[in-house]
Amino acid sequence: MSKAWKDVHVGEVLKVNSEEFVPADMVLLHTSDSKGVAYVETKNLDGETNLKIKQANKDIHAFFSSP
């Protein structure tokens, strides 16, 4: 299901795929990486072109990883 960013509200859980642009602050819940790590580019926010390492909360990541 696609949703326009203008229709996203606080508290919603979204699935964001690799290379997708996200015009919002988000809390990382789960990643495809087994350790819950994601690399985020924030150049549109702060001008920085270096990738930032973000890590999901270990307990929440484990919950979404369990079968």
Question: Could you explain how this protein is built, in words?
Answer:
This protein has helices at residues 43-46, 58-65; strands spanning 37-41, 51-55. By secondary structure, the chain is an alpha+beta fold. The protein is globular. The chain is 18% helix and 15% strand. The chain has a two-stranded antiparallel sheet with strand order 1-2. The longest helix is centred in the last third of the chain and has 8 residues, at 58-65.
Key features of this structure:
alpha+beta, 2 helices, 18% helix, globular, 67 residues, single chain
- Largest sheet geometry: 2 strands, antiparallel
Strand content: 5-15%
Distance between the termini: 23 Å
What does the average pLDDT come to?
87
What share of the residues lie within helices?
10-25%
**What would you call the structural class?**
alpha+beta
Strand line-up across the major sheet:
1-2
User: How many runs of DSSP E, i.e. beta strands?
Assistant: 2
CA-based gyration radius: 13 Å
Q: What is the global morphology?
A: globular
Number of helices: 2
Instruction: Give me the strand/helix succession.
Output: EHEH
* Uncertain ranges: none
